[in-house]
Amino acid sequence: MKKPTKSIIASLSLGQVHTLVILAFAASAIAAVAPWRWLNPLPTWLIDTALLAELSALAEELKADWPVRFLANLIGYASSLLPLYFVLRLVQAWGYDRRGPSRGILPSCIRTLALPGGGAASPKDDENDKLGAPRKSSKEQQQQKQKQQRQSYSLRWCLHLTACFLGLQAAYLTWGLLQERMTTFDYNGERFHDSQFLVFANRALGGLLALPLMLLAPLAWGATRKSSETKASDRMTDGKQSPPAFEYVYSSVSNILSSWCQYEALVYVTFPTQVLAKASKIIPVMLMGRLVSRKSYRVDEYLTAGLISGGTALFLLSSPEVAEAPTSTATNPTSTTQQQWMNAVSGATLLAGYLMFDAFTSSWQSKLFASYRSGPIQMLAGSSLASCLATVTAQLQQGSLVSALGFAYRQPLFASHLGLLALCSTLGQLVIFHTIDSFGPVTFTIIMTVRQGFAILISSVVYQHRLSGNAWCGVGVVFAGLFLRIYLAQRGRAVADKRD
User: Fold this and answer.
1) Compositionally biased, Basic and acidic residues: which spans (predicted)?
2) Which residue has the higher pLDDT, 469 or 63?
């Protein structure tokens, strides 16, 4: 904020600040339940009504109305989250951590939303002593890590790794098949088109499961501390504060948008194409890492990223198969060509959106882990709740929530698929956290890379996707680049450990 604005805010009384906060909360709540037709986000003075009708008809004919729904979703998210962002900036500029009260329902809500650690003092060594979890030095941590590596080939370790591997494969291979089934096939002659509702279902179940786990975590704190000093739970005792609740909103919105683009893309491209696009997300992740966290990368990392992208390009250029529009009835060649071109453009745009939003999500979450006292379960709970608020707001405004629930009521098979999809997504997230916590990110990356290969094979067999020889060569190049990247990263860590 500019200095004059800051001085005006600083001159406000506590009562005035609380009044503005209450009004902002009320605006967010009202926006969440306001019907879409009341908002009228595109006034007639912005665009000619006849032209708008013509564009809408063209989009409907070509089955490419996703930009309109994407814009509607953004307006829904902004209408409920911008008032909360106003609260964040207001209380930070006013100095609520120093001047505001610490007791009461409203002050507690304000501090939780906008201030690190709820506005409390940063936890120091005395808090660590209370938890009975003194921090180890980096040398002690290295010794503990080497001890674990010497024990890594025990039968118990192998069984543990096998269980994590099978859990991830079962959860995400099932999730992938269900995702393709629900978005590209009919249910008794009806097809489900609301990708937003699928995102909401996944996040709602994740939040319902994460909240009790987060509340029960302190009961198992001692056991968690004994397991490994290199685990993610160590961040809970390093003197950092928990993040303001609003910090979860940024990654939540980007995660919602990436998931929405992912579901929507399956209408226009095949599942193997989507999986290969996911495998090539390394370059956007690296770019976001430089922009968000100021990370630097080695030359071999750029080379392997280029190899992966080249393999993806070979796959896409060698696979002329394009997903047909859900309800296309075009009979003349011109309409068919238009439809195929629109499918290709829509699919590529949605996949690019998925890669961009997903890269920002992982980079922002890594920044939160590094800057604040936040564990995986806290991240899952905070992100899920923020995602539920945003998606419910957009659905209520557009009136799509009732129709989606009605579809699930009319189609019991869809309802069962939806429940299983959300369960696989949530359990998969928990297995991901446990695998990274127990075996590290390299092992997890290898497991998920293998999963992507299985996903392409299973989808090609179950849903009969035709892949040419060059397309399979592209798949091989992508996975060769992935495994080369993993090998080089592991070798670099081993060299660094020897130097230390």
Assistant:
1) 123-132
2) 469
Task: Name the token pair of 130.
Answer: 């209370």
Q: What residue ranges do the domains of the chain occupy? A: 4-114
Task: Quick: pLDDT tens for 405-463.
Answer: 999 999 999 999 999 999 998 888 888 777 776 776 656 766 776 777 777 777 777 76
Q: Phi-psi bin for 239: left (phi > 0), alpha (psi -120 to 50), beta?
A: left
Taking CA 331 as the corner, what is the angle to CA 326 and CA 333, rounded to the nearest 5 degrees? Answer: 105
Can you give the C-alpha Rg of the chain in angstroms?
A: 25
In the numeric block, which tokens belong to residue 395? 């659905």
Q: Which pLDDT does position 233 carry in this prediction?
A: 44
Between CA 36 and CA 397 the distance in angstroms is 4
DSSP three-state, residue 427: helix
DSSP-derived letter for residue 218 is G
Structure tokens at 269: 């491209």
pLDDT grade for 400, boundaries at 50, 70 and 90: confident
Say how far apart CA 175 and CA 476 lie, in whole Å.
23
User: What amino acid is encoded at 364 in this protein?
Assistant: W
Sign of torsion, CA 309 310 315 316? positive
Question: What CA–CA distance (Å, rounded) separates 122 from 124?
Answer: 6
Helix-strand-coil split of the chain, %, nearest 5: 80, 0, 20
- Cα angle for residues 213, 217, 220 (degrees, 5° grid): 130
- With contact defined as beta carbons under 8 Å apart, do 394 and 263 qualify? no
Backbone angles phi, psi at 41, to 5 degrees: -70, -10
